[in-house]
Specification:
The complex is a heterodimer of chains A (about 325) and B (about 280). Chain A has about 325 residues and is mainly α. Chain A is built from 13 helices and no strands. In chain A, helix 5 packs across helix 8 and helix 7 crosses helix 8. Chain B has helices at about 5-10, 15-35, 70-105, 110-125, 125-140, 140-170, 170-180, 185-220, 230-240, 250-275. Classes of the chains: A mainly alpha (about 325), B mainly alpha (about 280).
């Protein structure tokens, strides 16, 4: 198992490296002089020259690149052009908000989506199947921010159960959870739609298999057949889809954070875009990439756990 | 066969009937969306400051916005803009990703390794973040949005095209073509592409829906086409400030996106079922 994890890690590293190279060059082709952007139009020529020197803009590109890679490895992402604080500090402050949001959305999506998908496949073309397929099609078609606004209108304004603004700094656990509920539900419902669809498709492929018939013939309980023989084999495509839609989930988290004014990475990236804070933008892109590459890695490893055949390949 | 007929068969090879039917419905929905502005009762940019934030009525079906503009007319125009960007981006992703994938899967070796690496890297940027960055670097505009969303769709098409092309590359009839002296390009265009086309078209119909969602999200963040152009996401952003007083400003454009995307998803689903008989519902 350890050797398998090491192999997966080794194949993720070049991808991470190329992604970092890409971020570096995108930042270099951005229009404008970074020193001028940081200091503003009224800066003196001497100050501009000094800052360019400090940022290393005069050095050859490859030297700048090595310095940049070194900084990224030490998680030094530069200093924000707007707030003047280190970008890594700002990111560490925002990261928990995004992580708790996406993690609870994934949890909700799996806990609700897998049973729905199974029920749908078992009663293929029955009423339960039609209802669950309609629900997942609807979930799939909702723009995340529209779903968020609808939930907000319904549960915070019409029936005031949850708070409208979900910023919660150092509040009680209850307050934090209440604030998390609506945004997590927004992302979770959409994720549930993806999970339910792929679970249904995966289960439909397993149901006619001979080993399922054999298991039944052996006389094991129907629940055991379902969990140990069908779901176990359907797990692989489900994991794939969960991994694949994580990227979409990350994108959806941006608009969700805006609707619910959560101080996460998404709100940070939109603020950085609006104020043209390229240093923060570059740092955030690096972090987003590393998160996605990390999740892909975890998906790969889960693959190996779910299906021992993958490890040998 | 006439030249036009041959060309049609070249681009749209013989496809299952259900798939063609789905494709036609898809085109019909698109044509309908493109024609929507013809039904708009008002000029979407016409301001009437005496009639600001009017609730929905017989005169203004979806009410009026902060500048007294007719929301219904703006929704119709915005839907067409969404369609234009969504279709354009999907087409760009389909052509670029499909070509890359077929080439990589058919050639194998270094070409395959290079394209796979590119796909991995593109996939490690969440597609929405990638669009945000491109729009931030180049600035907003219809062609830029089509390019940005198209780029984020490239890996999705490339992966599917590659795996299908790999499977087809090993078939005997491909060997037979080679023995007859056909060039790689000819084999890819005349023999590999027609076998991949069905799957790519299904994928395209499903990703068009997603491309429209991405465009709506971008304009909701104020990063899409700039106002006063009527974009559905942008209208919702404007409405958010007065959500309490005038919820229709946000709900109507949102419902328009939802209905439009839902229609595309239903059609895409039908087409997928037609191609993948294992999942077909009787």
């Amino acid at each position: 198992m350890l050797a398998f994890i090491a192999r997966r890690l080794a194949s993720a590293l070049p991808t991470a490296f190329i992604a970092l190279v890409l971020v570096f060059f995108i930042a270099r082709i951005l229009p404008g002089d970074p020193a001028l952007a940081i200091l503003g139009d009224s800066a003196s020529e001497a100050a501009l020259v000094a800052l360019r020197e400090k940022l290393g803009l005069g050095r050859p590109v490859w030297e700048q690149f090595i310095a940049y890679m070194g900084d990224v490895l030490r998680f030094d992402l530069g200093v924000s052009m707007v707030s003047g604080r280190p970008v890594s500090e700002d990111i560490l402050h925002a990261l928990p908000y995004t992580l708790e949001l996406t993690a609870s959305a994934i949890l909700f999506g799996i806990v609700a989506g897998v049973p729905i998908g199974i029920a749908s496949a078992l009663q293929r073309n029955g009423p339960a199947d039609y209802v669950s397929r309609a629900v997942s099609l609807v979930g799939l078609s909702f723009p995340p921010f529209f779903l968020g606004i609808c939930l907000l209108l319904l549960f915070a304004i019409v029936i005031p159960v949850f708070p409208v603004i979900s910023v919660h700094e150092g509040g009680s656990l209850r307050g934090r959870l209440m604030a998390l509920a609506l945004p997590a539900l927004t992302l979770g419902i959409i994720f549930m739609a993806f999970v339910a669809r792929s679970t249904r498709a995966a289960m439909l492929e397993v149901i006619p298999e001979i080993f399922v018939r054999t298991a039944r013939a052996k006389g094991i309980s129907e629940w055991r057949v379902l969990l140990r023989h069908m779901l176990r084999n359907a797990l692989l495509p489900i994991i794939t889809v969960v991994g694949l839609y994580f990227g979409i989930l990350m994108g959806n988290s941006v608009v969700t954070e805006i609707v619910f004014t959560r101080p996460g990475l998404g709100k940070m990236i939109v603020a950085a875009l609006n104020s043209r804070d390229y240093v923060t933008l570059q740092g955030l892109t690096v972090v987003y990439c590393l998160i996605v590459i990390g999740v892909n890695l975890v998906t790969d490893i889960l693959y190996g756990l779910a299906d021992p055949r993958v490890k040998l390949a | 066969m006439s030249v036009a007929q041959r060309l049609r068969l070249r681009v749209f090879p013989r496809l299952p009937k259900a798939l063609l039917l789905g494709g036609l419905t898809f085109l019909l929905v698109c044509a309908l969306a493109a024609a929507l502005p013809a039904f708009s009762p008002f000029d979407p940019a016409e301001q009437d400051l005496m009639q600001r934030l009017e609730p929905p009525s017989a005169g203004h079906w979806f009410g009026t916005d902060n500048f007294g503009r007719d929301v219904f007319s703006r929704v119709l125009w915005g839907t067409r803009l969404s369609l234009l960007i969504g279709l354009g981006a999907t087409l760009a992703g389909l052509v670029a990703g499909g070509a890359l994938g077929i080439w990589a899967g058919f050639k194998g070796g270094w070409a395959d390794a290079a394209v796979m690496r590119l796909i991995d890297v593109l996939l490690s940027f969440p597609s929405f973040i990638l669009c945000l960055l491109i729009v931030a670097v180049v600035g907003p505009g219809v062609p830029i949005l089509i390019f940005a969303i198209g780029v984020s769709l490239v890996p999705k098409f490339a992966r599917v095209a590659r795996s299908s092309a790999m499977a087809i590359g090993g078939r005997e009839y491909i060997d037979a073509c080679r023995t007859m002296g056909a060039s790689d390009l000819r084999i890819m265009v005349r023999h590999v592409y027609p076998n991949v086309a069905g799957e790519l078209l299904v994928l395209a119909s499903l990703w068009t829906a997603n491309a429209i969602l991405i465009e709506a999200s971008l304009s909701f963040l104020g990063l899409g086409i700039r106002p006063p152009a009527p974009t559905l996401g942008g209208m919702m952003l404007e409405g958010l400030n007065v959500l309490h007083e005038a919820p229709w400003l946000t709900l109507m454009p949102g419902a328009a996106i939802f209905v439009f995307v839902l229609m595309l998803n239903v059609i895409g689903d039908r087409m997928r079922d037609a191609v993948d008989p294992r999942l077909r519902d009787v």
